From TrEMBL:
Family stated for the protein in its record: Belongs to the insect defense protein family. Belongs to the FRRS1 family.
SMART domains per UniProt: B561 (SM00665), DoH (SM00664)
Domain DOMON, chain residue ranges per copy: 235-355
Protein name per the record: Ferric-chelate reductase 1
Cofactor(s) needed for function: heme b
A cellular component annotation (GO) from this entry: membrane
InterPro entries reported in the protein's UniProt record: Cyt_b561/ferric_Rdtase_TM, DOMON_domain, Ferric-chelate_Red/DefProt, Reeler_dom, Reeler_sf
Length: 598
């Protein structure tokens, strides 16, 4: 290193220390400490892969314990270190500096300083070339989650690398069992002289999980949507609870740029009469925490004024990359709407929801992005991943309605319209064969629809609307029309009587109206969050409609209808099977990964 460059680096360090003493007596200037930029005039950091790496003596550290952190070279031969600044940064909030350093390897050339907190940063004190440096860092007693050690390292005044980072280090609770520590680094195995400037190489290691997922296996109780999303860290909404003594710390996070994400404590797995905690993103980008009380299937649905706000205390919040995150404490015992919530003594169902709208300034909107409840009440001090409620009834409802309105109803209507004069001379059970099959198919439609309707009433605990989606309304009208069709058919006038034409037109109108409404209701179901269907399902349904309409047109003019029925029926069955698979395996992506062992 040239003397003038060394002098310039010394001058920079002195100026930083002067600013610390004159403007920030307990920390470095906010700009320098936060962005770790040396501010060497207009000189920019190197864009190549740095010849430095940061390693740690363990991938986990208990609260209050220490680990060693080393700045060195990943190439075998040491690369001299001129100047540097090193800090531990929180994974969830990279502007947060965590913990403190307790020892430095060479007090004459390195030092501990204060940036945002006491002893939270290490840097050089002289510009002399230094060998690999190992520091001792102590984890704070009041922090749980992931940290990464970040540094800017300079070889000379004009050559420095920014954002040199270690692998993830997880700060865990004092009672966590940690396996034998091993050096955690990204060093390469080949021995070679390190080049100062190297070509960039893509990283093969996956990005670290968000901090809310860290500890779900051994220190937290975690629950997310969709099911089995915790391990991969891709939940649409997730809640995590960490308990130390009588302190209950909650974390909630939602993706897809939600307006709010919320968690609730409930005595059952149905929405209503629950104590909710809402993390709301305001229009100015700031995040606010509220508590509220939910009402089952009636206005106001959610009401904040019925829940005391002082039972929760916001600790952290962020909105990063479309993710809304909150960390807060809740009183171990609280009273809401006359109901005592004692989290230490009682078990509760956990609910997590998120949505992209607000009803008004005081109420969150419908949970359009995510909603799920645990399958059973849980002791909130337990650890691990909670299972969601069974969706068997929901999926049976969907499958029954698909068979009824895309399958049996479509075939039954085609037989009645085009084959009453084509299929003649043959009988089944004393009736013309077209009528016998028409009646079998339509009775099947009626049975499947009624059973499917009863199933969904049991699943949701009664009739309930689905926000702005008209699925529930059109579905109810479809069920009513379907229910009265066989009753009208039973009392139909005899052929040739004066009222028979009126019956024929009414039976045709209500039957086709029910069929059209039934298919429209299935279209609406694609957009229901609970259905968890891929968006492209609507194109499969559209293809079915196009095929169905085209076949009606062809059958209206063709003279070989029996052959066309041999084409129409198998294709309709294929459509129904495909859609049943989408419903039964939803969410299809998770099911595919499970089958493939991903």
């Amino acid at each position: 290193m040239l003397p003038r460059k060394r002098d310039a680096w010394i001058l920079l360090g002195v100026l930083c220390l002067v600013k610390i003493s004159t403007q920030h007596g307990s920390g470095a200037p906010p700009g320098a400490c936060l962005d770790q930029m040396p501010r060497h005039s207009s000189i920019l950091p190197q864009s190549s892969v740095p010849p430095y790496a940061i390693s740690t003596s363990s991938a986990q550290v208990r609260q209050g314990d220490s680990i060693n952190v080393t700045i060195g070279s990943p190439f075998g031969a040491p690369v001299p270190i001129g100047g540097f600044i090193l800090q531990a940064r929180a994974i969830q909030n990279t502007e947060q500096i965590i913990g403190k350093f307790t020892t430095v390897p060479y007090p004459e050339t390195t030092q501990i300083i204060n940036c945002r907190g006491e002893n939270d940063t290490v840097t050089h004190s002289t510009p002399e070339d230094k060998p690999p440096l190992t520091f001792t860092w102590r984890a704070p007693a009041d922090f749980l989650g992931g940290v990464a050690f970040r540094a800017t390292v300079a070889q000379s005044y004009a050559t420095f690398w920014r954002n040199v980072e270690s692998s993830l280090v997880e700060v865990v609770s004092p009672d966590t069992v940690i396996t034998t520590p091993s050096i955690v680094t990204t060093t390469q195995t080949t021995k070679q002289e390190p080049p100062v400037i190297m070509e960039s190489k893509p990283k093969t290691t996956p990005p670290p999980l968000d901090v809310i997922y860290q500890g779900c296996a051994d220190t937290k109780l975690c629950f997310g949507v969709p099911q089995n999303c915790i391990a991969s860290g891709n939940c649409k909404a997730v809640v995590a609870i960490f308990v130390v003594g009588d302190t209950y710390t909650f974390e909630i996070q939602g993706t897809d740029n939600p307006k709010y994400v919320a968690a609730a404590l409930s005595t059952d797995n149905k929405m209503g009469d629950d104590s909710a905690m809402e993390c709301v993103r305001n229009d100015n980008g700031r995040v606010t925490l509220f508590t509220s009380w939910t009402y089952p299937k009636s206005e106001p649905y959610v009401k904040r004024s019925d829940s005391p706000q002082e039972i929760v205390q916001l600790l952290e919040s962020s909105t990063i990359d479309g993710k809304l995150y909150c960390k807060f404490k809740r009183d171990a015992v609280s009273t809401v709407k006359g109901q005592i919530f004692d989290m230490a003594k009682n078990k509760y169902y956990l609910m997590v929801v998120s949505g992209d709208t607000m009803k008004d300034a005081e109420r969150v909107g419908f949970h359009t992005l995510a909603f799920e409840s645990t399958s059973e009440p849980l002791a909130l001090a337990s650890v691990g991943t909670a299972a969601g409620a069974s969706k068997l009834l929901l999926k049976l409802h969907g499958c029954f309605m698909l068979i009824a309105w895309l399958g049996t109803a479509s075939l039954g209507i085609v037989l009645a319209r085009y084959f009453r004069k084509t299929w003649v001379g043959k009988t089944l059970g004393g009736k013309d064969i077209w009528f016998a099959y028409h009646r079998i198919l339509m009775v099947g439609t009626w049975v499947l629809t009624v059973v499917g309707f009863i199933i969904i009433l049991v699943e949701v605990g009664g009739f309930a609307t689905t926000g702005d989606n008209p699925h529930a309304i059109t579905g109810l009208v479809t069920v009513i029309l379907c229910f009265i069709q066989p009753i009208g058919a039973y009392f139909r006038p005899h052929p040739g009587t004066r009222k028979r034409p009126i019956f024929n037109w009414a039976h045709w109108f209500f039957g086709n109206a029910a069929h059209i409404l039934g298919i429209a209701t299935i279209f609406f179901a694609v957009y229901l969050q609970k259905a968890e269907l891929p968006p492209w399902t609507v194109y499969v349904l559209a293809a079915f409609v196009v095929f169905h309409v085209v076949m009606h047109i062809v059958l209206s003019f063709a003279g070989f209808r029996k052959h066309l029925l041999g084409v129409y029926a198998p294709i309709i069955i294929i459509f129904v099977i495909v859609l049943i698979c989408l419903v039964a395996l939803a969410p299809i992506g998770e099911a595919y990964n499970s089958v493939m062992g991903a």
